[in-house]
Amino acid sequence: VQLTPFLEHLGGWETQWDHDARTASAQTDLFTLDVPAQRSYVLADGFSFDTGGRSLLREGRTYVPLRSVANLLGARVDFVDWDTPVRVLDIGTASCTEEDFYWLCRIISAESKGESLLGQVAVGNVVLNRVVSDVFPDTIRDVIFDRKNAVQFEPVTNRTIYDEPTAQSVLAARLALNGT
Fold it and tell me: What is the pTM of this model?
């Protein structure tokens, strides 16, 4: 899919082209996305995210693999059938308090430091899925420190939950909250 119209559809993105670097860049309040031409990855706040296919540069326009970039940005792609145009559904950004964001960044960092960005987003999703479950507490902080059926996360016990989160874990928290 062509990058700029796709991002315009999602809303809130500003795009530009760096001719020397052969890279399309886009910014939103959430993060920055860089798409190097002819590469099978994009950079989200400088962290590499595999797209499963190469970006293309055709007639001055950047094209990206639709499903993987949509997933990264928290959107879902529906194919109704081959005769119907593709629909891109914007999932939107989950709201949370500053305190919840603080704890989500810390648990992602402590639980999965050294993992890929996708692995860190997965940890964020574990926490967020527990927040919406009736079995667990209703806030991110309370899920992390829940001891109802034993300690849920080892970093609570070994106190690495209090370590400064990495930049990648902050991005992973943003992505998880955005629906990735």
Answer: 0.65
